[in-house]
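INTERNAL AUDIT FORM
Audit reference: QA-55
Scope: verify that the stored structure record matches its stored sequence.
Auditor: D.O.
Record contents follow.
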Amino acid sequence: MPVNLFCPGQSSVTPKYRDGHFRTFRGYPELSNRERGLLYKWVKSEPERVEEYFEDTLGLDSEYSEFLIRELERGYL
């Protein structure tokens, strides 16, 4: 999951995360080819459904889910 690394004096999140707060994620969850294909289909038309899948089905937090959605949109997952 994410590792939060704050710069000194910057400990609050602002809109669009422009706060000196670095978020790092390691790896991707294991997904079958069927799941991956379905997620690629959903991310084009219903990205909120993908986020629900990651959070409700896989139990991931919202920041990691949003990261994974960006990775899906870019074709990296």
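Auditor finding: record pair retrieved intact. Residues 46-77 form one domain.
Action required: none
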